[in-house]
């Protein structure tokens, strides 16, 4: 089994979307004074590698705590716009994907879509109830059109519109361990 970390590190002062809360990471307790170390973390729910719930862009839509856990993991593939896309897979784009792809995506109804998504495409996907992942690090290192198990679980934030995640791609030594993929 091979595990590929797709997450950006979280650190004090890291870049954020313009207008979003700044990320601060401060030492709150030290071993010398308290006998343990503890950090205080302040950040927006869309900092770094994160998942977006439909409620992020649509009033009254599903929040993180209303979505089932299987909305955040499953068999997936990295694809390009001109590829044939598999059914019943999460889809990730290493290149920019725009709203012109929405019709195909809506028809396939993947459990989640991620990667280099335009804001317009993200809004359409979330409106269709499809969870999105953004700010993934290293999709270009993954083979295109090969099944992997994606895991990107959010924090369980009540009425959450999004959450940082530790996103990983897991490749089985024998692809039969995850399923061979469907006919296209």
From TrEMBL:
GO terms for molecular function: arylformamidase activity. It comes from the Bacteria. One of its GO terms (biological process) is L-tryptophan catabolic process to kynurenine. PANTHER family: CYCLASE-LIKE PROTEIN 2 (PTHR31118:SF12). This is Cyclase family protein. It comes from Cohnella zeiphila.
